[in-house]
Design goal:
It is a single chain. The protein is of the alpha/beta class. Helix content is about 35%, strand content about 25%. The strands form two sheets. A six-stranded mixed sheet has the order 6-7-8-3-9-10, with helices on both faces. Strands 2-1-4-5 form a four-stranded antiparallel sheet. A hairpin with a 2-residue loop joins strand 9 and strand 10.
């Protein structure tokens, strides 16, 4: 469904004495996301996860490499078409606090060229999917953290995307709010949608993901199932397996 071929993203940073050096935040990564699967993108802070997600979502141009999406049997690399097929939730999405979630979704529907009837029907569907009946008409600035995150996710659903990219969707949420979002993601997979899911919560990744991709210093260091990784490193859960793998890379990582 979505394929990334040899993605590289190079940045420049300042070192001591004003010396500038270049480094690859993403360094020759190729992945293939299939229809109806959840793929976890895992790694320590600074590994390049968010940069990778932004390139996969066509929000950032790679220095080299390309992203290709299969749309009804046709391979396309047009950024505009790819964006129309994706629902992207970043880790620092800001919403207009003075709007209600319903007003926000109306704006999103207009952006996507939907009719008033289509917008109204879709808002009702999303409201039920994310259980937002109690607060959909409240101003966003008055919502709880969990409600605000559901409002943010709701805007990604308006155009019925085939693929979701979620960057830390449950970060900082209480267990009830995070569970609701996790179950929503699981249900979307059962509806045939694909999900690229970045998280630091290993229990979520173990529960949700069909495959995981672990990156460090911009490179893939593991790609496969959770069970295979646990077998390879001799651990019973993903949290311990991840820590051992990352520590082998020379990263002193503790949860």
């Amino acid at each position: 469904m979505l394929r990334a071929e040899h993605l590289v993203k190079t940045f420049t940073k300042n070192e001591k004495k004003q010396k500038k050096i270049q480094f690859n935040a993403v360094d020759d990564i190729s992945i293939d996301i299939k229809e109806g699967e959840i793929v976890g993108i895992l790694g320590p802070n600074g590994a390049g996860k968010t940069t990778l997600l932004r390139m996969l979502g066509s929000l950032m141009k790679p220095t080299s490499g390309k992203v290709i999406m299969e749309d009804e049997g046709v391979l396309v690399d047009d950024e505009r078409i790819i964006k129309q097929t994706i629902g992207y939730l970043s880790g620092n999405t800001k919403l207009y606090g003075r709007l209600s979630t319903r007003e926000l979704l109306n704006i999103m529907g207009n952006i996507y060229g939907m009719t008033k009837e289509e917008i109204s029907e879709r808002i009702d569907e999303i409201c039920k999917i994310l259980n937002m009946e109690e607060f959909i008409d409240n101003r966003i600035e008055k919502l709880s953290t969990g409600q605000t995150q559901r409002a943010s996710i709701s805007r990604c659903l308006m155009h019925k995307p085939k693929l979701y990219i979620f960057d830390e969707p449950t970060l900082g949420l209480d267990i009830l709010s995070s569970s609701a979002i996790v179950e929503f993601i699981k249900n979307e997979r059962e509806n045939g949608k694909s999900v690229i899911y970045s998280t630091h919560y290993m229990e979520e990744a173990e529960y949700l993901c069909d495959r995981i991709i672990i990156i460090n210093a911009g490179k893939i260091i593991y790609e496969g199932t959770v069970d295979n990784l646990k077998q390879e490193v001799g651990q019973e859960n993903l949290r311990d397996a991840f820590r051992i793998l990352i520590n082998k890379e020379g990263v002193d990582y503790e949860f």
